[in-house]
Amino acid sequence: MSSTSSPQALPADGPADASAPTTPAAEAAGPGRLVTVVLAAATGAAVANIYYAQPLLASIARSLDVTRGSAALVVTLTQVGYALGLLLLLPLADLLENRRLASRTLLVTALALAATALSPTFPVLLLAVGVVGLTSVVAQVLVPLAAHLAPPHARGAVVGQVTSGLLLGIMLARSVSSFAAAAWGWRSIFAISAVLMVVTSVALRRLLPERRPEQRVRYRTLLASTAGLLRHEPVLLRRAAAQSLLFAAFTAYWTGIGFELVEGHGLSQVQVGLFALVGAAGAAVAPLAGRLGDRGLGARGRLVALLTALAGLVVAGLGAGSVVLLAVAAVLLDVAVQAHQVLSLRDVYALRADARGRLNAVYMGSLFATGALASAVTGLLLSAGWGAVVVFATACVVVAGLLWRPARR
User: Fold this and answer.
1) CA atoms of 162 and 164, how far apart (whole Å)
2) Mind listing the pLDDT tens digit for each residue in 217-267?
3) What is the model's pTM?
4) What burial letters (b/e) apply to 158-180, b meaning 16+ CB within 10 Å?
5) What is the DSSP string of 73-102?
6) The dihedral of CA 267, 312, 383, 273: what is its sign?
7) Which end of the chain is less congested by CB atoms within 10 angstroms, N or C?
8) Hey, what domains does the chain have and what are their CATH numbers?
9) d(CA 169, CA 64)
């Protein structure tokens, strides 16, 4: 499917916005506060499912009698499932009514989470978390829905607010799962989340407005057009590649840090949960990054984010003997990754209003495919120590920096 925008016509920091609300009234109003809050909460609750296991790998390894490298496969399979969901399920957001698609998919997520909590063996656990990842793409159905509901002049701010909820889900997931594991065992968080997914499904069904895409094509045609976006949208390719590398560094850090804190520093599961709270600082930067993008400062903001990530990993390497310095590194890395994400998504969503679900599928699918690979590599590197994990993550950020381009004038 051909693009409706020309790369030569791009403004300084990204593509021209190709979308417009269907009526002047819709443009002026945008999503109400309640709808924005519901979208933010639902995205956070859904995406948290793919991060609950990260700080629990040591407990899972002991419980199911597997090695550290094998336990890391829980993260890998979850992200593989998520990547597949992004590529195969997310394009349906451009074909099916979004509210119904989201609410029904969450019910499947609830069943998969219940299966995860009850898994008797490690292979069953891997299968269950793969389905959890596959269906948790609801979060990525809702973020472009926020972009559809927002007027063009405030799209960055609205997407930033909803992304804040998503980021809080990512950051708080590790702490919540650690606290639940300390109190009731590692399986408890998956049972709790299963109930939460049912509640979230009902809330979406009752509170969100309908959004029926204008697409009237077959699913196969939709998938073919999704693959074609990478050829026709160079901005999508550049933003996805750079953010994928940053996300690989992010995944490597958070996959390895649980083992480093438990085995290298002797922290308990509760203390690991408290450590993970520092990552919530990354959510605070999302609305600010969105406003910077709205003011035409996206390119400079992305460069600052890349440099911040690099600084965080330098601190992680040099300060490996200090839990405080590891926490500082986590904050810097999380802030960088989330700011770069919001600024990149703003450019991607502005490419084509009729294809936001598919654009998001390609963009986020790239991220989680790379994240799955990064978690698998990290599992192998854990035997070599924390330093090897940091070197790998740093290399990812350096390559991402090579993809940055200054603003066009």
Assistant:
1) 5
2) 777 777 777 777 877 888 888 899 999 999 999 999 988 888 888 888 888
3) 0.71
4) bbbbbbbbbbbbbbbbbbbbbbb
5) HHHHHHHHHHHHHHHHTGGGGGTS-HHHHH
6) positive
7) C
8) 30-402 (1.20.1250.20)
9) 27
